[in-house]
Amino acid sequence: MDPPEAAVGVLRHVHSLLAPGATVLHLTCLPVSDRIEADGHVLGELDQAAFIASLPVVEGAVDLLIAEGFLVEETRLEHDVLVHFSSGPEALAHFETTPHTRVPPELRVVLRDLDRPVVQRAGCLWRRLRVARG
Which residue in 64, 49, 57, 1 sits closest to 28, CA to CA? Predict the structure, then answer.
């Protein structure tokens, strides 16, 4: 089973467990790399190409269930999620353990010796869906 069918299969299983009229909240990342900021200025962007490439699979599965009439999208909201770090080295240590994320060399140099707070800004999409039928 390749990834799109796997995602649809998982969502169909979850859908079968929900009562008609139930609310489903779906949070996903927008297909843009996270920005790294300090003191209100952008220092650079993470390389998240591998992660971003996987986003259409899950979104496509949700959209398919909407198209088939199993789910109804009631609302959507694009917003930012901020992750705060006390310093550049703390942020680097975190990114080293984050799958599908690479710190570009020029950003690594900036963060390596930065001894002040750093923020990771991720664009997200929140969707409220209603179960239309079982």
Answer: 57
